[in-house]
Structures are given as C-alpha cells and as structure tokens.
Amino acid sequence: MAMKEETSQWKQAMINSTAGAISGAISRTVTSPLDVIKIRFQVQLEPTSSWTSLRRDVSKPSKYTGMFQATKDIFRDEGIRGFWRGNVPALLMVMPYTAIQFTVLHTLKTFASGSSKTENHINLSPYLSYVSGALAGCAATVGSYPFDLLRTILASQGEPKVRALNNSQGYYEMILK
C-alpha cells in the first residue's frame, strides 16, 4: 500500500510540474513583447518625461518615449524577432519557476490538509493557503533567479548586441561576481 501511495504522489508531482511548466511557457511567450518594451524603458539611461527636459545635464533625447513609439522602433530596427529577444532564457526561468511553484504549493497544501486530494485543499484556512503560496513562491524564485538575470541581460541589449556573454563561462562569472 505504501508503494502505491508513493507512486501516486510521484505521479501527482509530475502532473503539477508539467502543468506549471506548460502554463508558464505559454503565458511567458504571449507576454514577451510587453516585457521587452518594459525592460528597454528600465535600462534606458535617458529620461522619458518632458519634465526632465528642463534639466541641463541631459545631453541627448530618449530613444524610447512611449509604448507605441518603442514598439515601432523595435520593429523597424530588429524586426518581429526583437520582441522575443531573451525569450528562451525567460522560458528557462519561467518553466522551472512555475513547475516548482505548482509542485511545492500542492505538497504544502497536502501536508497542511493531511490529504493529497485537491478538493480537501479548498477547506484550508486562508492563513495556511497564504503561507503555502508564499513558501511556494519563495522556493520557485530561488530556483529560477539565475535564468531571470540572463533573460534581463539579453532582453535589454537591443541592437547592436553587447558581446559580454559570448559563452556560458562568461554568464557564470557574471552571476558569481
């Protein structure tokens, strides 16, 4: 009986991991263009606000000044593929993140409720659900952070590309610094 229960738990963990990874991949790929635009604004050194044009220490205008203008410029300079720059590392981040989150959340709720049946997890107190979700999110973040760093670097580059990470050794050296 214990062997059957262990097999069932393993099967449930695999289902949760797979469902998390697939849902994460789909949502990440669909939202990639918005994420690329957001990152370009975040790493832009020039200000985007008209208020900052009053400052005398700003030497050149902003490359990106608004969502539509940024979309047009990225498309013109990099083509449609520019909107998915850094998506593969992002998938390498999101898929483990959501797989870990789904699996840890189900495991913690199983432990808290004393049952592996999902319908029994609904009866958990809001406090236990909150704590389970927070711990699952923490575990997922720790497990996927190196991929998030690489994704941000690649998405922020634009054209011309920065060649600082020409191999995996360069990436690992950057993380360890």
From TrEMBL:
<comment type="similarity">
    <text>Belongs to the mitochondrial carrier (TC 2.A.29) family.</text>
</comment>
<protein>
    <submittedName>
        <fullName>Uncharacterized protein</fullName>
    </submittedName>
</protein>
<keyword id="KW-0813">Transport</keyword>
<keyword id="KW-0677">Repeat</keyword>
<dbReference type="GO" id="GO:0055085">
    <property type="term" value="P:transmembrane transport"/>
</dbReference>
<keyword id="KW-0472">Membrane</keyword>
<dbReference type="Pfam" id="PF00153">
    <property type="entry name" value="Mito_carr"/>
</dbReference>
<dbReference type="InterPro" id="IPR023395">
    <property type="entry name" value="MCP_dom_sf"/>
</dbReference>
<keyword id="KW-0812">Transmembrane</keyword>
<dbReference type="InterPro" id="IPR018108">
    <property type="entry name" value="MCP_transmembrane"/>
</dbReference>
<dbReference type="InterPro" id="IPR002067">
    <property type="entry name" value="MCP"/>
</dbReference>
<feature type="repeat" description="Solcar">
    <location>
        <begin position="11"/>
        <end position="111"/>
    </location>
</feature>
<dbReference type="GO" id="GO:0016020">
    <property type="term" value="C:membrane"/>
</dbReference>
